[in-house]
Amino acid sequence: MSLNPDDPIVVAVNVASAANVRRTLLALCTDERLRQYTLDFLYRIEPRLGAEEQGRKEIRPEDRRLEDRRLEEWRQDQLRWQEVRKRLEAELAVERAKLRAVEEVAARWDNMTKAQRADNKTKEIRKGTNAVRSSDNITASNPSNTTATITTKTHCYEYRSHKVASAHHDQPLTYPERHRLFPDDGGVNPQHPTARQAPTQTIPGNNPLKKSSSTNKRKAASTLAVCAQCKEAFDTADKNDSTACQHHDGDLECDEESDVWCDYYDGHDGPSRYSEEAKELYPGGFIYSCCGKDGEQDGCRVGRHDVSWTRTKWG
């Protein structure tokens, strides 16, 4: 049995363009052949819509309950994950707040350390200035204290001119110097022609003090030498056994990870950490390339003193 093209439903299906209109017409089709014709028409016009309508089946009640249960479980899982996410975000916010607090404390400590170092340097400078002033005041107020007078005057005179005779045994004291250093000593007549000569030097070139010093120097130069390995003075007359010299074969290198350089700023706290002066002032901040020990530890090599370097400390 064929469908009548003039049937109002067939005409309506043929002229329908909207998907909702087509679904409505499909629902009105009670005749099976008309319904099949409508599905074929929809499949030709819109294959996706036709396949969807053709493959749709009626959902059973038990399947609907299963779908509802699965949907409810999915919703519960979403709620639990939202709670877990909120808790993790709260913990992360707390940790970030702690980190900011630690950074603020570290910044304040660094600023306080810099200010404290500057304050300590200022105090040291003031302390040294006050010590010099107090020593001058003690000397001026108590001239009878010969020891304090000699010490203070000798220090000042060495600092200003470096020509104090007491620092050099081979140079005699002149009368102004003796009078300045020993004001209570009246054994020298300022009017005597030989007042500016040393009391012990009566013949030019015959200074016993100078002669003794030269003898000791020649003796020291003949028996003492400096080891080329450990850079220490040793007596060549002593026994030079296999355990006499303890030294390092490597060079001192700056240890950037040492605690000595934690709060150290080159040029502000002292010389550059790569200079030779820093090796003498802060040996703990350097390590030997041969063994990895710091500069304050003993040598890693033990042997005899190297006498090939004959230059002495006094030669």
TrEMBL record:
This is C2H2-type domain-containing protein. It comes from the Eukaryota. Residues 131-147, 191-215 have a biased composition (Polar residues). PANTHER family: C2H2-TYPE DOMAIN-CONTAINING PROTEIN. The keyword Coiled coil applies. Keywords: Coiled coil. It comes from Rhypophila decipiens. Residues 71-105 form a coiled coil. Residues 127-147, 185-217 are annotated as: Disordered.
